[in-house]
Amino acid sequence: MSLGFDLSVLEELTSNAKQIQDDVLTKILKANANTEYLSRFLEGSSDKELFKKNVPVVSYADVKPYIDRIANGEPSDILSGEPITAFILSSGTSSGNQKMFPRNNNFENIKFAAALSSLVISKHVHGYKQGKVMIFSFTQPLSTTPCGLPRDEVVSVGAPFASLLVQVIHFLGNYWKELCSNIRSGHVSEWITDLSCRDSVSMILGEPNLELADLIENECGQESWQGIISRLWPKTKCIEAIVTGTMAQYIPALEFYSNKLPLVSRTYASSEAFFGINVNPLSKPQHLSYTFLPNMSYFEFIDVDGDGEIVDLVNVKLGGYYEPLVTNYSGLHRCRVGDVLQVTGFYNNTPQFRFARRKNTVLSIYVEPTTEEDLLKALTSATVVLESSDLILTGFTCFGDVSTVPGHYVFYLELKAKVNNSTGDLLLDNKLLVECCCAMEESLTSIYRHFRAKDGFIGALEIRVVEQGTFDSLMEYYVVSRGSSISQYKTPICINSAEALEVLEEKVLARFLSDKSPPL
Ligand code: AMP
Questions:
Q1: What is the pLDDT of residue 175?
Q2: Fewer Cβ within 10 Å of end Cβ, the chain: N or C?
């Protein structure tokens, strides 16, 4: 398909970032200057300097009353000059609160960014253009996901986030026998009652296909699911799913299921804005950065390590840590996103950012400040211990249990055997899991270790292994209770909702405690 542009567009955009950002802001201010929101600060002016001087940096909570008014039927020019035609719900799983953002019909930009990212991938992945990309993009309940696309055309398999792709594979693990029987009979199971889903799956199924059913059965029926993606879709050249940020925890599982095919994180986007694309799709997840696209929204950056100064896109400094602010076409002005990014370089004149971890405290029993980064470090230590075993980690979260005295950290892990044994039971080696507990404690901060080992203010770290499918249930809990889309779901790194904890507690298979104090 001809896109009407080629990769020279990327060069043009990134070379002229300053001018393009200027034009974007001018356009947004012209469209929105007379909205109720902006006229409070600008009195109808669309002057850029005045914008920077008078329009406050806001968090979602500050604009929520305006958004709620539009959602409740007031005209959209409260916030946006262009009519608001839809709302997009954020997953709310990373920040804890679900957010609703206005959208207008300006989807062209997003289509453009997605097409540009595809062009970049096809430059790096040989044969990408010649095949099909299979993305599991959930807009319906998980149970209605159709599988079994033509095997020899698929060159890339993916889902928006890594966690979701792992869940898709587990779903297939639970339903492959039924799927094969559907393919064999050419008939969709009766319990799938959603008509549009039945129709689309029936269209893919077509006539009974014994050969395909046998092929899938043969692969899925093997004891080990190592490389299952490449076995089912043999021409797959890469896996497309976001594996940066908190999604890094799913890398070992995806590497296992794909036999270490390249993991491609294409884009950085949120409900607030589309930020950027990965122009080196084959770079390793730990070295991966996103090049901002200056035509998507107007971007400013709060210097989070320095004095909180706000700078423009082209003025960020190499190595600096920043939180992006979004001014978009749909009525958000200088809105904080909450992510922390580090500048890793420049593509032409446009900065590239690595996804850095938030530095705020997410877990604390006493007064120790344990951050997301600390928790992910602990998780990496556990993964290293597990590497020598037959187990892979497929789900992770934690919470601070203060019902014990002293309180202690609890890590819920969902584990899967690399090779299924005949009973299907998970064999949990006490020594191995206690070793994991100790390795995690050792990698936590010195303040944690001090309170744990010296002062006894924190008790021994505990691992609770949960049944397979528990993290799917957790996802369902969040998705159903918040009404957001599965596609946006991100497993929370730390849980603070009693109901969500209940979902986990019901499925605990075994508990393990660290058996020694970590070194100071
Ligand atoms: P939502 O608004 O619910 O779609 O969530 C958007 C959030 O997902 C962003 O603010 C990031 O925290 C996270 N996110 C999006 N893209 C990436 C990425 N490429 N790498 C890591 N995290 C991401």
A1: 92
A2: N
Show the ligand 1 pocket: residues with CB < 6 angstroms.
90-91, 94, 242, 244-245, 247, 265, 268-271, 337, 339, 355, 488
Spans in the chain with pLDDT lower than 50:
94-95, 140-150
- Report the C-alpha gap between 23 and 296 in whole angstroms: 11
Ligand 1: residue whose CA is nearest its atom 8? 270
Backbone angles phi and psi of 292, in degrees to 5: -65, 145
Give pLDDT, residue 87.
Answer: 78
Question: What is the β-pairing status of strands 132-135 and 154-161?
Answer: parallel
Among protein residues, the one with the nearest Cα to ligand 1's atom 10 is 270
CA distances from 143 to 152, 168, 174, 179, 467 (A): 25, 10, 11, 12, 19
Single-letter residue type at 509: L
C-alpha to C-alpha distance for 423 and 27, rounded to whole angstroms: 64
Q: Are 326 and 332 in contact (CB under 8 A)?
A: yes
pTM reported for the whole predicted model: 0.81
As to burial, measured by CB atoms within 10 angstroms (0-12 exposed, 13-18 middle, 19+ buried), residue 399 is buried
The CB density around residue 117, as the number of other CB atoms within 10 Å, is 21
Cα–ligand 1 centroid distance for 270 (angstroms): 5
For a mutational test of ligand 1's pocket, the pick from 87, 274, 339, 352, i.e. the residue with the most ligand atoms closer than 8 A to its C-beta, is 339
